[in-house]
Every structure is written in structure tokens, then in C-alpha cells.
């Protein structure tokens, strides 16, 4: 099984779909010229194809295990990680002051996309570190930054996020971990955390945990939570990882997928930690990390969709069954339909993720409020639609394989299992949708309407070249506008009840827009044919979704728990 | 984890939705009075709840293995199977002449539904036997029937289906297994078969294989295929399983799910077999078995959806997270939406499956051509929509569990893994859809239009009670009628390209109809509230599906394999 990075698609997206030229045009990202970006992506692609992709099955067949309290990682993962770290791929966007490349999040996202597609379980490790770097850059003291960031950026040390506790999942405010001041500026952190991805590993010198805990005077709920940096090994005077801290991995979860990524139960037993940000202000710092992570997780969906699509294509081009012009099952219309769906939806999800990355970059580079609002608005959509697409596309990929898809040796099922968690972690997709219809519509729909204006203006301009496609995209945008207006006029319970179909409807329309951009850029090429497939056959799903989204809460909540019981 | 058979829902379906009174009104099924059927279902429910459900996790954790060429089944499966056989649940519909209960397929389907929900992996064994019994009843000689049927009906012996070979999956006609006449009326069967569910077990005295193979003068393709009965042990003069036949289990597949069901590679090495039906007419006999099996597999989807829904409900009523009126996550609107979707779609898929069973029963009881056509028409829809619903509902169930859903100990992931094969085996869902738009529309749409007439007449009658719901169902039926007319007017390539969205659109509309029936029967009860949810929020999906279904083949096939490559 071989993975090939879709470099041409990235080039098309950057140049013609998500408007990366605006990013490259800022002072902050002036170094991100087309040539530089291309060279970087080509280099990362080579590493992913040659080093990471061959490790993907290892992670599944030889899962990470806990031996004498230490994680032993899957065969080859240490070498794979070294290639990631040595290439500088842990933290492409990190501040050059601390050794980063200072490149846009858009470039990070594409590099992540390739790393996920080639080996999602291993890549989850640097993805966690990326979030930690961003949180420290924004909220840590200079002393902490000087000590930790250079180690994290090079990948010598790894970072983790410790939020969840058994009684505190989606409701982070329910957590009970404690932090007591030691009197010397440090804190003693005590508590149990669960679902900690890569809570330990055997290939970095140190593992640095960002832990949410409550100070003695912290009020109940999210307003009494603070963030602490708790390293596995406490750095000594030279900055080298010194004595072991009072924390341990208690156990690893036995999961549906992602076997190569150890999901740890962590126990902090008076572990020494340093406050990050202000007291009782931990949620804000955590959100810096989580927003970044939400884009990253959306990209996990996209990358998996790419891997699954390539695998299904490989099989479809090889498997002979029935009589077709092509000689293989790719000649059957229904197989073609499945593959086209995979390709078209992967493109849609990827465009949304990268247009979020562009909005983040523009917001960071210019401080412009509109870009900031756009980034905020697109975050839940990129996370939820990216991961739902990863799940759906992986499932279609399995289907393309027929009976062989159900056999584990084939490898198609691994994509289905690995990606399944992405609609759950970093805020379930239900939470993303509630964020969209709640916080992200608090501006009265301004950020949404600005996007729709842009879509409709573009569709108007495309009418000459693609009259039918332009009209369909324009209509879908108008339908979405009316639905958005209806939601904005309603109270929160009414919005929450239809949040998920609304989010998906929004994503469908955005996908239509980005496909139309691609078609306009390449009107006689594959891109236009795939765009036509998406816009005429997949985009119409928005009609049903938006009908659902206009229904409100009353009829739903009238269904009592008893009504749902046997 | 406890399973409760949804007996009230079965009663509602029989009495008010799928028209079982017509079946009970025939001479053939005069014994199937409401009281008898209720007593039988209650008894089967007890066995499923008490005996089978506790075995479900065993099948996953302690998979069937091959030891010295013999299958060793999962812990407890032998005892579970004994309860199934002793209760007479292997073959509820088998001919009383051979020891069966002679009850309608509708009753068999409900009993299967309960057995699947409680332990799908074990139930797959009697499901295979059911198909074999039906094939033998229709096509075997009296001598074969007298010898085999009594043993199969009691469950003393088990049956299997041997179609697939490595190069012959969906294209059965490509098979290369051979049968040579021995000169004594028996045949020597040689070849390798793959994906043979329950190809062996350690709890029946004999295992009887129905094997497709080619006689020396058999032409290539499906027209040269004959069907043979090849027992593992050759019955002696007394009818007891005698000496071992020349066949063996070569290996078991390592699968995504259904670990309790051994999926065998079988080698037949000059094994002694008996011709079933006429020479070169094996496909017809096989289709008897496969049509039965297609309903059975659709019901596997329904049963799994039921099991997954009950599991998710249990979790949602227990898990505290955030502040809700109910105190648990069932108070969150999005969780309610997920559970309502599971409940409503399970009901829709179950209604379709049972209305197919009723059509089969009416066709068998009356010989009426319209009932026969309806059974033929509904078969691919019940199979594909039933299994797609099983897959979707199991996935939503996992999502309801949040992070715990990804942890195997929870059990939610097992439903996702187990049910995944159902959209592939017994004819992939793509093949079902092609059957629907091909063979099943060869009547010019007559069977389809008769269904739509029935839906619209019912919707008209429901307008006074449920004006909005009746109108939505009526509209959806009209949309479907227009789409069907468009398809009937087109050639096969145009139909095949859109077969899958057309089938799903058809199922969505049928689901709306059956929900409306339920609402009319219980206008102030849970059924009406769930029907409203389905009709206003899920049924609208048909709009997008039917738009896709009107697109034809040209734009799709214009996307070349190169267009889909990286």
C-alpha cells in the first residue's frame, strides 16, 4: 500500500480556492512565497510517503502497550517520530524566536494532512505538541517559554492536553483535580485524568502535560479552573529533564482504533506544576490550544479521507469483477459513484479546513476583526464536517473493497476504526454545532452573511462559464441565508435542537462554493468534472438538512425519554 | 447490558402498519392467529433476553478459532445454540411435514430480529440454515428432503451457502469449482470457496454445504452453474452422520467484527455431493436461498439497530454531564435528536422489512402475481436500507457514548463492527440498488406505482388527523413517482449510475408512509411524536437523494479513473 501526497490539489487550493495569496501578501508571512511553500510541501510529502506511510499498519497490529508503568510504542514509531522531528515537521508554524519556521497555519495544516493520511496514530503525538506550543506562546511567562518552547519545537520533548476526568467530559467545568500553591511559585497538582492521547512515549526526552485543575479558592464550574504545566521530568538547572515528577500512567484504553496511539489514564499525585496564564483563567488558555486542535482534528478527518480514497482507488483499479470497459471494477458506475463521492467530499472538507487556516493566518497577521470572526465561525464547521467526512469516506472506502473490506489484513477497515474517534474528541461534533449556532451566531449572523455574500458574488461571476452549477450554488446559499435568519431569530433551545443538521447544511454549501472555485480555475479539467458531480449530486443534500434545521426544538423535546424506551 | 425485545412495537407493526391480518386471513396461515403469534413472540423474546443477549460480548472477546482443522466456537455459543434449536427457533417457517412450525415469514423475521439484536454472531448460524431449508424445500428431490430437512429444521444439523471464490464475488458466474459425475447419481465436487459463514461449528452433528460448481459440460458464466448439497459427514443408511467427506476448513478470516461467527475458507477436494435442482440451473435454486437471505440480512441491520439503540438509551439515562432537567444527558437536545433518529430509522427499516415479509407470505399463500411482484420489488430495498440503517444507527449509538464509545469495553463499538459487513454480503447494497432499477423496474414501474398509489391513498385519508404530515408524505410520494418515471424512461447505464440514491430515496418515502400509519393508529402516543420527527426532519433527505437520482450516467462516467487519481 502506497500513499502519494496530493501536491497538485494543494497547489490548486492555495492558488485558486482558499486565497492563500492574501496570507503570503502580509508582512508577517512574507517569507511564505509560492516557491518556499512548494519546496516545504514537497519535502514533507517525501517524508510522509517514504517514512510514515509504511508504519501505519504497525500501529494497528503492534499497539502501544504499558510495561512497568512506561509506554512502549509500536514498532518503527520511534524512527518515524525522529524523521518528523528532524524535518522540523512538529511545529511548522512555531515562532522563529524559539526555533520554529514561523510559517502560516495553512502550511502546518497541509503538512498535518499528509502526516495523518500516512500515519494518523503517530501524527497525533506532534499534533498535541503543536497545541501546547501555541498555548505556551500565548499564555506562558518568558521563563517558561525560554525553557520549554525550544525543546517542544524541535520535538525533543512532547506535549499533551489533560482536560477530561471520568465525571468531566464535555462538561469540563465539573473537573475535580486540585492544585495547591507550594509557596515557591510552583504548585502541587493532584487528580486523575482520562483519555490522554500520548500521555507517555518512549521516544522523547520529556513529556510535558498541560493540566486543568482547581486552586483551593477556585469557584465551582469553568470559572475556577487554572492551567498548569506539569512535566514528566522536572527540568534541572541546565534545562535537561531531571528527576521524575509525581505522576504516572495508570493504564491504557483498549480502543476501537488508533491502537498505535496510547490513550492514557494519568494520575497526578502532588506533581510539581507551573501556572500558565492567570489564576482561574485556565479555560481561556485552554481554548487557545483547543481552537488550534479543532482545526487539527478536522484535518485528521481530511487526511484519513485521503488515505482511504487512495486505498480504494488502488483496489478498484486492480480488482477484476464483471465485464467493464476498463477491465476492473472502476468501470462499474456504482463504484465510480463511490470513488467520486470520496474524492469530491474530501476536497470539500479540505477546502473548508484550509479556508479556516487562511482565516487564522490573516487574523494573526493583520489583527483584522473580520478575519478573526471568520476563523471563529469556520472552526466548528471545519472540525465537524472534516471528521464526519473522514468517517463517511472511510466507510465508503471499505464498501468499495467488498468482502475484502471486512477482512482486517486489507487495511481498509483500519481507516474506519482509526478515524471514528475524531467526531468525539476535542469537543464532540454535537458540541461544535452548538458552538456554531450559539456563540458563533451571537453577532446576529454577521460572519455567516459575509460568507454567503462572498459565495453569491462568486456564483454570479461564474454564471457565464457554468450557468447550471452557478445557479445551484447560488440557490443553496440563499436557502442557507434564509435558514440562518430563521435561527438567528430564535432562542438557544430552538437553535441547539437543530444545530447538527444546520452545521452540515452550512458545510455542504461551502463545499459547493469551493468546488465552483476549482471548476472556474480549471474549467476543462478533472476539477470541473468533480465539481459538477458534487454540485449536482451531493450539494442537494442541503435541502433536507436545512428543512430539518428550520424545525426548532418543540416537537423534538416533546418526545420524552419514555417515548424512546422499549 | 440488558436487551428487551420490543414486543409492543411488533404488535403495532403487525396490527396497524404492515397489514399482517391479510396473512392471518389466508388458509395457509390460518393458524397464525394474533394469540398464537403473540405467544410465540413472547416465548422467543424470553429466550433472546435471557439466553442469547448475555453471549454477545463473548463472541467478540473469545472469537471462534480453528484448532486442528475444527472450529471451536465462542464460550457459551454451544449452549446458546441449543436453546435456539430446542425452542424451534431455527426454522419457524419450515414445512410442518418436515417438523417445522409452518408459520409466516413475518413471524420468522421478527424472531430473527430479536435473535440478531441479542447475539448477531450466533444467530448467523441458524439464518444460514433457514436459507438452506427453503432452497431444499423448493428444489431438492423427495429423498434428499426426507433425509436432510428433519435434521436441519430441528437444528441438529446446520446449513451453509458456498458461492464466493477469490475471483468470483459479485460476479458469481466467474466461479471455477468443478463437479464430476461419479456415475452413481452423486458428484465429486472440487474447488475453493471463501467467506463461508459458519463453514463449521462444534455444536451440530453435521454441517451441510450448498455449493455452486460447474459440471464438465457447464458453459462459462452463470448459465453453466449447478447447485450441490455436500455434507461434512456423509449420512449412513440410518441417516446418521457417517464418514467424513473430502472437505475441510482451511482457515478463518480475521475480520473487523462478527468475531463469534467463523468466516471460513473451504476446500472441497473431490467431496461427495448431490445435485439440487436441475443441471446448469443452480443459480435459480441459489436465488431462492438468496432472496430469503436478503430479507434475513436486512433484518440483521434492523436487529443491530435495535440493540444499539437500547444500549445508547441505557447510557443516556445514566450519564450525568452538564445541567439538564432530567439530570442526565438525555436532557440535551442533541442527544435527544440522536436517540430519536435511531428510534425513528429503526422503525422505518423494520416496517420495510416486515412489509416485505408480509408480501412474501401473501405471495406464498395466494400465488397472487401482484404480491409476488411486491415481494420482488421490496427485497433489495429491505436489504439495503435495513443494513445501511443498522450501520448508521450503530454509529450514532457510539456517538451518544462520547469518549466511552471508542473504548471497546463499553460494547457500543461492537455493534458498529459487527453490522458493517451486512451492506456487503448477500449482494452488496450497490448490487441491490442495481437489481431495483434494473430487474425490478422491468415491469415499466408497475410494482413501484402500485406502492405509491397505496401511499398516496393512505396520506389522503390521514389529512384530517395530521394535515402537515399527510401532505409531506404525499409530496414525497409524488416526487418519487416523477423520479421513477424518469428512470423507467432511461436506459440501464443511466439507471445504474443513480441506483443507490434512488433506492435510498424510495426507502425514505416508504418510511414516511409507515410512520404515518403508526401515527394514525396511535395519534396521541409516542408513535405519533416519533412519526412527526421522522416525517418533518428525516424524510426531507429524499429531496436531495431524488435530485441525485435524476442525474443519469453521463456526468459521472465523464469522470475518468485518471480524474480520481492523485
Automatic annotation (TrEMBL), chains A, B:
<feature type="domain" description="Acyl-CoA oxidase/dehydrogenase middle">
    <location>
        <begin position="161"/>
        <end position="269"/>
    </location>
</feature>
<dbReference type="Pfam" id="PF00441">
    <property type="entry name" value="Acyl-CoA_dh_1"/>
</dbReference>
<dbReference type="InterPro" id="IPR006091">
    <property type="entry name" value="Acyl-CoA_Oxase/DH_mid-dom"/>
</dbReference>
<keyword id="KW-0285">Flavoprotein</keyword>
<comment type="similarity">
    <text>Belongs to the acyl-CoA dehydrogenase family.</text>
</comment>
<dbReference type="InterPro" id="IPR025878">
    <property type="entry name" value="Acyl-CoA_dh-like_C_dom"/>
</dbReference>
<dbReference type="InterPro" id="IPR013786">
    <property type="entry name" value="AcylCoA_DH/ox_N"/>
</dbReference>
<dbReference type="InterPro" id="IPR046373">
    <property type="entry name" value="Acyl-CoA_Oxase/DH_mid-dom_sf"/>
</dbReference>
<keyword id="KW-0274">FAD</keyword>
<dbReference type="InterPro" id="IPR009075">
    <property type="entry name" value="AcylCo_DH/oxidase_C"/>
</dbReference>
<dbReference type="Pfam" id="PF02770">
    <property type="entry name" value="Acyl-CoA_dh_M"/>
</dbReference>
<feature type="domain" description="Acyl-CoA dehydrogenase/oxidase N-terminal">
    <location>
        <begin position="37"/>
        <end position="156"/>
    </location>
</feature>
<dbReference type="GO" id="GO:0016627">
    <property type="term" value="F:oxidoreductase activity, acting on the CH-CH group of donors"/>
</dbReference>
<dbReference type="GO" id="GO:0050660">
    <property type="term" value="F:flavin adenine dinucleotide binding"/>
</dbReference>
<dbReference type="InterPro" id="IPR009100">
    <property type="entry name" value="AcylCoA_DH/oxidase_NM_dom_sf"/>
</dbReference>
<dbReference type="InterPro" id="IPR037069">
    <property type="entry name" value="AcylCoA_DH/ox_N_sf"/>
</dbReference>
<dbReference type="Pfam" id="PF02771">
    <property type="entry name" value="Acyl-CoA_dh_N"/>
</dbReference>
<comment type="function">
    <text>Involved in the assimilation of dimethylsulphoniopropionate (DMSP), an important compound in the fixation of carbon in marine phytoplankton, by mediating the conversion of 3-(methylthio)propanoyl-CoA (MMPA-CoA) to 3-(methylthio)acryloyl-CoA (MTA-CoA).</text>
</comment>
<keyword id="KW-0560">Oxidoreductase</keyword>
<feature type="domain" description="Acyl-CoA dehydrogenase/oxidase C-terminal">
    <location>
        <begin position="280"/>
        <end position="436"/>
    </location>
</feature>
<feature type="domain" description="Acetyl-CoA dehydrogenase-like C-terminal">
    <location>
        <begin position="451"/>
        <end position="559"/>
    </location>
</feature>
<dbReference type="InterPro" id="IPR052166">
    <property type="entry name" value="Diverse_Acyl-CoA_DH"/>
</dbReference>
<protein>
    <recommendedName>
        <fullName>3-methylmercaptopropionyl-CoA dehydrogenase</fullName>
        <ecNumber>1.3.99.41</ecNumber>
    </recommendedName>
</protein>
<dbReference type="InterPro" id="IPR036250">
    <property type="entry name" value="AcylCo_DH-like_C"/>
</dbReference>
<dbReference type="Pfam" id="PF12806">
    <property type="entry name" value="Acyl-CoA_dh_C"/>
</dbReference>
Amino acid at each position: 500500500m502506497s500513499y502519494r501526497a496530493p501536491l497538485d490539489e494543494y497547489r490548486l487550493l492555495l492558488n485558486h480556492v482558499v486565497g492563500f495569496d492574501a496570507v503570503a501578501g502580509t508582512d508577517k508571512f512574507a517569507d511564505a512565497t509560492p516557491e518556499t511553500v512548494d519546496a516545504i510541501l514537497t519535502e514533507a510529502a517525501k517524508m510522509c510517503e517514504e517514512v510514515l506511510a509504511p508504519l501505519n499498519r504497525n500501529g494497528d497490529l503492534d499497539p502501544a502497550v504499558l510495561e512497568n508503568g512506561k509506554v512502549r510504542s509500536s514498532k518503527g514509531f520511534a524512527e518515524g517520530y525522529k524523521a518528523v522531528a528532524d524535518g522540523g515537521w512538529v511545529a511548522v508554524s512555531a515562532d522563529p524566536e524559539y526555533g520554529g519556521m514561523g510559517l502560516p497555519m495553512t502550511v502546518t495544516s497541509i503538512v498535518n494532512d499528509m502526516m495523518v493520511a500516512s500515519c494518523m496514530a503517530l501524527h497525533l503525538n506532534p499534533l498535541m505538541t503543536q497545541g501546547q506550543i501555541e498555548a505556551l506562546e500565548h499564555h506562558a511567562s518568558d521563563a517558561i517559554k525560554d525553557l520549554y518552547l525550544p525543546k517542544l519545537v524541535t520535538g525533543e520533548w512532547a506535549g499533551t492536553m489533560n482536560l477530561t476526568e471520568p465525571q468531566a467530559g464535555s462538561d469540563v467545568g465539573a473537573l475535580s483535580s486540585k492544585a495547591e500553591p507550594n509557596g515557591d511559585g510552583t504548585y502541587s497538582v493532584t487528580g486523575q485524568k482520562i483519555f490522554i492521547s500520548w500521555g507517555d512515549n518512549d521516544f522523547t526526552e520529556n513529556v510535558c502535560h498541560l493540566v486543568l485543575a482547581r486552586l483551593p479558592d477556585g469557584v465551582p464550574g469553568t470559572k475556577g479552573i487554572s492551567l498548569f504545566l506539569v512535566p514528566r521530568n522536572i527540568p534541572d538547572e541546565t534545562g535537561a529533564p531531571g528527576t521524575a515528577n509525581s505522576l504516572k500512567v495508570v493504564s491504557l484504553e483498549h480502543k476501537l482504533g488508533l491502537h498505535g496511539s496510547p490513550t492514557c489514564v494519568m494520575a497526578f499525585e502532588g506533581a510539581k506544576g507551573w501556572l500558565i496564564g492567570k489564576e482561574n483563567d485556565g479555560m481561556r488558555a485552554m481554548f487557545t490550544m483547543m481552537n488550534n486542535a479543532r482545526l487539527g482534528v478536522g484535518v485528521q478527518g481530511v487526511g484519513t479521507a485521503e488515505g482511504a480514497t487512495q486505498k480504494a482507488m488502488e483496489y478498484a483499479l486492480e480488482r477484476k469483477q464483471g465485464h467493464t470497459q476498463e477491465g476492473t471494477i472502476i468501470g462499474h458506475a456504482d463504484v465510480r459513484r463511490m470513488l467520486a463521492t470520496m474524492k469530491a467530499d474530501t476536497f470539500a472538507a479540505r477546502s473548508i479546513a484550509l479556508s479556516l487556516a487562511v482565516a487564522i493566518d490573516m487574523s494573526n497577521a493583520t489583527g483584522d476583526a473580520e478575519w478573526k470572526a471568520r476563523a471563529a465561525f469556520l472552526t466548528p464547521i471545519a472540525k465537524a464536517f472534516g471528521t464526519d467526512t473522514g468517517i463517511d469516506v472511510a466507510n465508503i472506502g471499505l464498501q468499495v473493497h467488498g468482502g475484502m473490506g471486512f477482512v482486517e489484513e486489507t487495511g481498509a477497515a483500519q481507516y474506519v476504526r482509526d478515524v471514528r474517534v475524531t467526531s468525539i474528541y476535542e469537543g464532540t461534533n454535537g458540541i461544535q454545532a452548538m458552538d456554531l449556532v450559539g456563540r458563533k451566531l451571537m453577532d446576529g449572523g454577521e460572519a455567516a452573511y459575509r460568507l454567503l455574500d462572498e459565495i453569491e458574488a462568486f456564483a454570479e461571476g461564474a454564471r457565464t462559464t457554468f450557468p447550471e452549477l452557478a445557479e445551484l450554488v447560488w440557490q443553496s446559499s440563499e436557502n442557507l441565508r434564509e435558514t440562518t435568519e430563521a435561527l438567528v431569530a430564535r432562542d438557544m433551545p430552538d437553535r441547539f435542537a437543530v444545530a447538527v443538521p444546520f452545521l452540515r447544511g452550512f458545510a455542504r454549501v461551502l463545499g459547493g462554493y469551493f468546488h465552483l472555485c476549482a471548476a472556474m480555475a480549471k474549467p476543462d479539467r478533472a476539477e470541473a468534472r468533480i465539481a459538477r458531480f458534487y454540485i449536482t449530486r451531493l450539494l442537494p443534500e442541503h435541502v433536507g438538512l436545512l428543512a430539518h434545521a428550520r424545525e426548532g426544538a418543540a416537537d423534538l423535546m416533546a418526545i420524552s425519554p419514555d417515548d424512546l424506551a422499549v
